[in-house]
Specification:
Strand order of the largest sheet: 1-6-5-4-3-2
Helix content: 55-70%
Number of domains: 2
Structural class: alpha/beta
Order of helices and strands: HHHHHHHHEHHEEEHEHEH
Radius of gyration: 26 Å
CATH topology of the largest domain: Trna Endonuclease, Chain: A, domain 1
Strand content: 5-15%
Length: about 350
């Protein structure tokens, strides 16, 4: 009895510790957000002062210029560390990139903005800023998405209006096509060039790097399982990867192929989708989506293979290495110029 009463008496104290811990964590989070907002605003104001001085005196504070050299020496002497030439240059660029203070997001840190102001293209910068807020990217995740040219990979599947909407609003997931990319980039798997891995190895590497794979898939994906078994006429079939999309409210089935996607692959995925639609999806679920990922795809043969299929089935390429961003930028520029003519 004594032991039971002793345990019972400890419960309120344990709850007290938990409650205090929660209050502390919330307080620290809010304090950090407040400090961040002040820091971002301070650096913006410093950048504004530098630019306005230039405009009055006809000087240009290019990186390493005499103006920035003088500033860094005098500010270091008077206020201490934190005023090297690079930091002052970044503050100046920050103001030039975001001249309206009201457009700055309270959810983004100075480290986020350092990455964003390094993007020369206004459309791309606005997209990454919006997407960073929508999906809560860390600085590391933002760097990764910029390096893999996420904006250009999504934008190339749209018309000019769609590209402008991307820049203004980010990637809003409203329809099935909003979750698709072509190509997907799996550089995080760190597979050496020339190494020939099996489909099983590729799948295992994705599972080992599931957090990065979910980042590449985008917002709304939750992992359900791998090698999901389907049994038909006593024959077992296995879906490589199964996810559930919280926004679209449906299962997403992914099959991985090492080479070119064939019509047999499409037929098999169509069978998986029909099965999931009938046997796995709940009453409130929307129809499942199937994505076949291969290193190659023949546009014409895939178009014919998909003809007449009513299920939501898509074929995309994946690449194991970072894309050529300059080539993607040129393709997007060509697309926007074609829209003008």
């Amino acid at each position: 009895m004594t032991n039971k009463s002793s345990v019972a008496s400890k419960q309120p104290y344990i709850h007290l510790i938990s409650a205090i811990g929660h209050i502390l964590e919330e307080g620290r989070r809010k304090a950090l957000q407040f400090v961040n907002r002040i820091l971002v605003k301070t650096y913006w104001e410093i950048g504004k002062q530098i630019v306005e001085f230039e405009q009055q005196g006809g000087e240009k504070a290019e990186y390493g210029s005499r103006l920035l050299e003088r500033l860094t020496q005098d500010l270091k002497t008077k206020y201490g560390r934190g005023f090297n030439i690079r930091n002052l240059y970044l503050m100046r660029q920050f103001y030039l990139s975001y001249k309206n203070l009201q457009t700055l997001s309270a959810e983004l840190s100075w480290s986020h903005y350092i990455e964003l102001i390094g993007i020369e293209d206004d459309l791309a910068r606005r997209f990454y800023e919006k997407q960073c807020v929508h999906e809560g990217w860390s600085v590391r995740e933002l760097k990764r998405q910029i390096n893999t040219a996420l904006f250009h990979r999504i934008a190339l599947s749209k018309d000019k209006k769609g590209v402008l909407n991307l820049a203004q609003k980010g990637q809003l997931v409203e329809t099935t096509k909003d979750i698709l990319k072509d190509p997907y980039i799996f550089e995080f798997l760190q597979i050496p060039e020339g190494y020939r891995c099996s489909e099983k190895e590729l799948e295992q590497k994705i599972i080992n790097n599931l957090q990065m794979f979910l980042l590449e898939l985008g917002k709304g994906f939750t992992f359900v399982g791998r090698q999901h078994r389907i049994t038909l006429d006593n024959i077992h079939f296995y879906v490589d990867l199964v996810f559930y999309h919280r926004i679209l409210k449906c299962f997403v089935l992914i099959d991985l192929k090492l080479g070119k996607v064939t019509h047999q692959d499409i037929g098999q995925m169509n069978m998986y989708l029909s099965y999931f639609k009938k046997e796995e999806s709940g009453q409130d679920d929307n129809h499942p989506i199937g994505i076949i990922l291969g290193t190659e795809k023949d546009t014409f043969s895939i178009e014919y293979a998909l003809g007449g299929i009513t299920n939501q089935l898509f074929v995309s390429k994946y690449k194991l290495y970072l894309p050529d961003k300059k080539a993607l930028q040129q393709q997007l520029q060509n697309l926007l110029e074609q829209e003008k003519s």
